[in-house]
Amino acid sequence: MPSYWTIVVSPASTALDGVGRDTRAAIGQMGMDAPRSVNASKVYFLEGSFDRPRVEILAAELLADPVAERYEVHQGLTHRDAAAASIEVHPLPGVMDPVALTTRTAVERMIDARGWTGQSVAGVRTARRYTFDPPPDAGVLDTIARRLLYNPCIERAFIRCEGRDDALPAEFPAPVHRPFVLRSVCLKGMDAERLAALSRQKHLFLSADEMRAIQSEFDRLGRDPTDLELETLAQTWSEHCVHKTLKSAVTYRGAGFGRPGKVEVKYSNLFKDTIVAATRMVNKPWCLSVFHDNAGVIALDDEYGVAFKVETHNHPSAIEPYGGAATGVGGCIRDIMGCGLGAKPIASTDVFCLAEPDYDDAKLPTGVLHPRRVLRGVVGGVRDYGNRMGIPTVNGAICFDRRFLANPLVFCGCVGLIPRDRISKKPCAGDLIVVAGGRTGRDGIHGATFSSAELGESHADEFSHAVQIGNAIEEKKLLDAMLLARDHESGCLYTAVTDCGAGGLSSAIGEMGEELGAVVDLEQAPLKYEGLAYDEIWISEAQERMVFAVPPARIETFLRLFAGEEVEATVIGRFSDDRVLRVRYEGKTVGELSMAFLHHGLPMPARTAAWSTGGGGAARAGMDSMDGMDGMDRMDRPGGAGVSTRAGGSSRAGAASRGRQADRQ
Fold this sequence. Notes:
Mean pLDDT: 88
CATH architecture of the largest domain: Alpha-Beta Complex
CATH superfamily of the largest domain: PurM-like C-terminal domain
Number of domains: 3
Largest sheet: 7 strands, antiparallel
Strand order of the largest sheet: 3-1-2-5-4-6-7
CATH topology of the largest domain: Phosphoribosyl-aminoimidazole Synthetase, Chain A, domain 2
Distance between the termini: 50 Å
Helix content: 25-40%
Shape: globular
CATH class of the largest domain: Alpha Beta
Structural class: alpha+beta
């Protein structure tokens, strides 16, 4: 029978406890009386068949630094110091825990390397523990936990002090097993109001006109859509995926901007009639790939092109700043990886638009995180993800303005290098659909449609499933494997690749197979844990995954190469030639959509635009480069030149030249 063990790893002295000191300082910055000391520890929970001597070895040789840290080993999951006031923060079940995943792999390797018979690991979880001296009362600890130490979207806090003793979990959470049931959604006879309400209830965020278009299509087919079909359309038609506002018809009436009097200008597609048209008119030969891939590519020299991608990750960062910013830059890195047959990321950039970090706490609206916490989180998220992949953040900016209080803007970007003969890609009928990298979980569901939602007081609870935690180490392994497959001695081992971003498999496979069609068997997709429904498997964004189109003749070599890099790669389907997307689960069809309707059935809105002078508004508090924000140290930004430097700025010199040299090796 598996047993549980707890290993607590703490700094060997208070002088080495940087996290504890930072936490104490942050408590003071919130206007509260800081305790004399705060001690921070890392907690590891092991499930498996272990004896105490082996757990002691794991703690001493794997989890604790013998010079800077000390450890304690306890049997069970519920041990803590009865005399200490503490806050223990655990990830919620189903939330990505990269440290736990890495620890489990390391434990398995140590068991194999040492030949420990009868020892095995069934699961690993982690937590953070903070102890306080002198012990604050329960109300103070609750405030510290809520405002500083945990985010209820992805974590749970357990508080112990006089008058309160939250019970720690005595066992790991068990997955929920749900029998397969094919679910349909009845749209017949619904008027516009009921269709709009259904869209909001199911987090589709489609307009009444868009819902009517879906209703008409399934009336034509003579059946109700399945929940998976409805979700697929919502992801594909989301603002995040299709940019329907920018592509809508717009009539502008107002000042002529250089022409006398007022004018009326009509655009049938604002994006195509302005940005695209201007680019086509200029027609520069150094524009190698624009407007049709995951990133744009311009020429660097005769051998290489430069790929660049920038996007926002605003809503996720408003709910969970660290994870939102980390997966924002991680998504841009994946877009570079998914450009052409794969570009190599070499540098990142970012811009953060936030309310002032010294904003009055008493005026903070319900459901809104304090700007100081948002700033700390987004800086840390970008820093950690890039540094763990070895990709420096070479520049950026921060803008402070109180109008960003409820909706901070987080812009992330990445630049990469790609051989010019690897810019074009095209999947072929008969190619196998391979998903590689991180496994699918429940996190990231509705990540695409969530971008179309309006944030309100309840958004943190309502959209917690859209929040993700990235695993940069997994993405680095995936990048290395992909580049080896791209530059294989026998030629590129795949015909196309794209990232598995917002919308998950639904958008990745739907986009790759637009001109072909596809057949997908969802039960083949690797899962983080049991209990996911078929539609959750299909639409979960879940980070660090790419989808490849691999010719059958090359699949054995492809899978062997990825296995050698310790990257999981699995065949989950095949591209067809009938322009129909068919999705199956355990042999039963759970979705069947025409690619024509999926990609061209969206009714585009018609909008009007006008220009008016005046209006003003609150003046911005400042916008400066990250490395030279004079006078902003008082606003709790991470010190003078600290933001870019902490985000890998020390690596910036020569980043491009080193990237080219490494890409040639």
